[in-house]
Specification:
Elements lengths: L4 H14 L11 E6 L2 E6 L2 E5 L6 H13 L13 E3 L2 E7 L2 E2 L10 H13 L11 H15 L5 H9 L17 E2 L8 E3 L7 E3 L6 E2 L7 H9 L4 H13 L12 H26 L5 H15 L11
Antiparallel strand pairs: 1-2, 2-3, 3-5, 4-5, 6-8, 7-10, 8-9
Helix pairs in contact: 3-7, 4-8, 5-8, 5-9, 6-8, 8-9
Amino acid sequence: MTAHPLLTELTFRARAQAHESTATCSCGAATLADRPDATVVRHADTVAKAHAPDTDPADLAPRLVTAVRLPEVLLPPLTPAPTRLHGRLVTFWPYGAPVDPDDPDAAPWEAAATLLARLHRTPAPTALPPMRGPAKAAHAVARLRAAGSHPAVAPVLSAWRALPAWARAEAPMPDVVTLCHGDLHLGQLVRHPAPDGPWRLIDVDDLGVGVPAWDLARPAAWYACGLLPPEEWTRFLAAYRAAGGPAVPQAGDPWPALDVPARALTVQGAARAVTKSVAEDRSLDEVEQCLVDACARMGSVPPQFAASFAK
């Protein structure tokens, strides 16, 4: 892959940040992500991230400050303010060891749930913007509409239309005071210091105030779709409740709180899957088809009439 100017310069900046007093080194560099919405490189123990081109500096600044203030929950940046590079906001972070994708049995569900509960119980700074979960789901659906014809588009859009306006980012969220991560999945956890330090949440781009159940919605959706084993979902939910998380009741049925966010995350996942399959001119794989099938079921049973779309 040929490095573009942003990637080349970001790699140079990461090296400079990692070795402030050394002109040269033999550490090498690794590109962790290079997408339209984020370019991330690592050099030694330093990670440099170029945020999405449309990132608002007025929104990113309080998110970074929040990470600095909550080092027991969020991985704090190395510098509290972003710099600009090729028109993009760039931040620098310590490297943390990610979840091993080849060892699903070691997935840190309890750690993720405990960190979320701590985050949700922390009073949110007054300057923090809304968390971006519903906006990201709406963006995925907009891309689906623009992707072209596909048999799966109709059931996904039908499930989307059945959601309340706040879950489609068309109205304010019913909770505007709870601190939320906004995009929780296992890729958002790292051990710091690497390789076996405590787990921390990363990626503050979607951090903000909103409905805390949204942060539980991806594993809830996977469980409801049959993609997450029941025992793993039970571990996650039990750990969240044990840590005093406010998103669901401490006992009893959690689905009245989880159902709408879980539906929204299922639609988001299905929309992304169909958009990707159209772009690659291929059929949906088994997991992608599972998400679309869940949307088909959801479209026939509105949220107010079902405790869970999986039941």
